[in-house]
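Tutorial, part two.
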Amino acid sequence: MWTVIYIAQSDKQAETIRERLSGEGFLVKVRPVSVARQQYEILVPESELDEVQEVLKDVLHSAY
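Running the prediction step on this input gives:
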């Protein structure tokens, strides 16, 4: 089952997060939440949730 771990505020931010998490070996999906607001959900398999959250913290702190 896929779980939302973050809602990005732009397609650029969503793509950056997807690339970084994929580069760490995680499966990642991105899907639009609201095209009008440019929001995108970042999803990962529930089984990888704990590991991804640690990496996501690093990604968000280093990029934004």
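Residues 2-63 form a domain with the Alpha-Beta Plaits fold (CATH 3.30.70). In part three we will examine how such features are distributed along the chain.
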